[in-house]
Specification:
This protein is about 15% helix and about 25% strand. The chain is α/β, with parallel strands linked by helices. The longest helix has 11 residues, at about 525-535. The two termini are about 35 Å apart. This is F-box domain-containing protein.
């Protein structure tokens, strides 16, 4: 319910004591609010009626799921966070953060701890302590995640974890020492590290292991990995010898870009469903029947045969950065639903038309291309095209009749035909030389930065009435069509992300973040359009 539709029913609804919505029992109002998905929606609900606003503390509460508990003092203090101007909700947010259970802890050394305490910012954790004080620290029953940036993880800390409900441990340091070098506790199911670890220290019940690559890790000993492991992600590129046949038998997810050639007759675990490897390792999965998603990092001089790709694969990614790779129909499974070609992939026109179950096709490249996609299957609903297309769109691709999502990035030409089924489209920013026309039927539009000096506003006449939301990483439009109810303004190069929600015809709620500053305010469109870009400094 918004104030615009509400006022259409009764122009004096805020002061009408007999209005059915105004006089809903608080218990019923609380039940309605409980069904709302976000704290922002709860704020909007309370602003639609004067009575509901005055009684907000009796029925409204905030989950504060996006606010770490340690943020509270800084976030809600007008001196440290003047961008938070919803003063009427400040106390409610205080209460929500206070009630939030501690779910994450940061353990650091004393110098780091003093630095946290001495500045106005804080961490993204619910609580933080120096490693020296952990003996007297009581880990909350609600806490499931703990992160160490201390180089020494003492035995006291390990014993504390073993008696807690901690499930995930993160080590954010390039070097560390464990207490008495015994296995980590059995209750740990996920470990994330920035470096290698002695496999003999891993808990026997471990389900997920993520290994960073800084400094360069040593070769992994697959035979020593816990047999319970289901998810293994190893960052970076490697050429270390590894026993391919020794990986845990229950492994379902494997990301391991390794160029080492192992014996061809050895297979990876039959349980795998998601795999990211080089084409050198394809013979190790050719007989697997459970793989659904396969990502191949392409290496030169290792051709791919049709028998190398399991027939069970429905999501396939070919990625290349420094070699040209020719894609043929023989190395695409017949049942493919998602296909992504990234980098210098080459193909013949019309080769995708024969895959009648294909739903999503992504052709990703920053280079100018003269390749033609041509015909596409009628089953296709999502299409992503290269960033630079130097020919009319109708010569490059024939858009299928059921297309719903189209991402054409930097294409400068005119779109002469668009299926009426298209609901989401991504375009470059509007310019004088290459004006943008948003096709009818589109409900969501994403504008991508193109050239800041050429960017101009879109005329209000060019917005289709079907449009309800937009996203942009450049300028906000001078006038916002009444049909648009939500706007996202973001900057990829900086931590700048704002959401704008329409409250009524002239008023909007703005919420988001600039670096570590959370921002909430209500204003009109002209003020928002001028103010938000100035915050990105």
């Amino acid at each position: 319910m918004n104030s615009q539709s509400y006022n259409n029913n009764n122009s004096n609804s805020n002061s009408n004591s007999n209005h059915i919505f105004v006089n809903l029992p608080l218990l019923l109002i609380a039940t309605i609010v409980r069904e709302l998905d976000s704290d922002v929606e709860r704020i909007c609900f309370s602003l639609t009626c004067r009575r509901w606003f005055y009684l907000r503390e009796k029925y409204i509460w905030f989950t504060c799921s996006y606010i770490p508990k340690s943020f509270k003092g800084w976030l809600l203090d007008p001196k440290t966070n003047p961008t938070f101007t919803l003063n009427s909700f400040r106390e409610l947010l205080h209460r929500g953060v206070d009630a939030k259970p501690i779910k994450s802890i940061l353990v650091c050394n004393k110098d780091y701890f003093k630095n946290i305490k001495s500045i106005s910012t804080t961490t993204y954790y619910d609580d933080y302590i120096p490693i020296e004080d952990i003996e007297n620290y009581v880990i909350s029953e609600s806490c499931t995640d703990i992160t160490f940036i201390s180089h020494i993880i003492n035995q006291i800390a390990i014993d504390k974890i073993s008696k807690s409900n901690i499930k995930t441990v993160v080590f954010r340091t390039d070097s560390f020492e464990f207490g008495n070098h015994q296995r980590l506790p059995l209750n740990i199911s996920t470990i994330i590290l920035h470096r290698s670890i002695d496999e003999s220290l891993l808990p026997l019940n471990l389900k997920k292991l993520v290994l960073g690559c800084s400094p360069p890790p040593r070769a992994i000993d697959a035979a020593k990995l816990p047999r319970s492991l289901e998810h293994l992600y190893i960052e970076g590129r490697h050429d270390d010898p590894v026993d391919v046949g020794a990986f845990p038998p229950n492994l379902k997810f494997l990301h391991y870009i390794n160029y080492y050639e192992s014996p061809l007759n050895v297979q990876l675990p039959q349980s795998l469903t998601h795999v990211s490897i080089t084409n050198i390792w394809l013979p190790h999965i050719s007989n697997l029947k459970s793989i659904k998603r396969l990502e191949i990092d392409l290496v030169d001089d290792f051709p791919i045969l049709s028998v190398d790709i399991p027939s069970s694969v429905t999501q396939l990614i070919y990625a290349t950065t420094n070699i040209e790779f020719f894609v043929t129909p023989f190395i695409i499974p017949r049942n493919i639903k998602y296909l992504r070609l990234a980098g210098q992939c080459r193909y013949e026109p019309n080769i995708f038309a024969q895959f009648d179950r294909l739903k999503t096709l992504e052709v990703i490249s920053n280079e100018k291309t003269e390749l033609v996609i041509g015909e596409l299957p009628e089953s296709l609903t999502t299409l992503t095209l290269p960033y630079q297309i130097d020919m009319p769109l109708e010569q490059y691709v024939k858009l299928p009749p059921r297309l719903e999502n189209l991402y054409i990035h930097g294409y400068k030409g005119v779109i002469s035909y668009m299926p009426t089924t298209v609901k989401t489209i991504e375009l470059r920013q509007n310019t004088f030389k290459y004006p943008v026309i948003i096709p009818p039927s589109v409900e969501t539009v994403y504008f991508q930065y193109w050239n800041e000096n050429d960017t101009v506003d879109i005329r209000s006449d060019d917005w289709p009435p079907s449009l309800t939301s937009m996203s942009t990483n450049d300028i906000l439009p001078f006038q916002l069509p009444k049909s648009i109810t939500s706007v996202n303004l973001f900057k990829i190069e900086s931590s700048f992300n704002f959401f704008i929600q329409r409250l009524n015809e002239t008023t909007f709620l703005v919420h988001g973040a600039r670096n570590s500053n959370l921002v909430f305010f209500i204003s009109n469109w002209d003020t928002i359009r001028i103010l938000l870009p100035k915050l990105n400094v």
